[in-house]
Fold this sequence. Notes:
By secondary structure, the protein is mainly α. It is built from four helices and no strands. The protein is elongated, with a radius of gyration of 26 Å. Helix 3 (about 40-90) crosses helix 4.
Amino acid sequence: MQHRQARRIFSQRKAIVEPVFSSLRCQRGLNRFRRRGLAAVSRAFALHVMAHNLSRAVALSKERSALMLAALRAMRTLTAHLRLRFLLGASASVSIISQA
């Protein structure tokens, strides 16, 4: 690839498309189609792609829920420190927070 634009386009393709086909071939075992005819192969491929998209959506939702859980825990901790500060006064809560 001698042209910069061609290298940029190829690098984008490699980052976006190639992992999907790699996942379909290696993890899902899609090395060949067991149907005959373009319409049947198109339907089979569409089903494989939908399965891949659903698995990605589930994985992303698990990551998001883990991040949300961590954020909720942090908010609970902050709320507990603010309650202590309110109940004990500003000087006592500063020493409690600084020790933690």
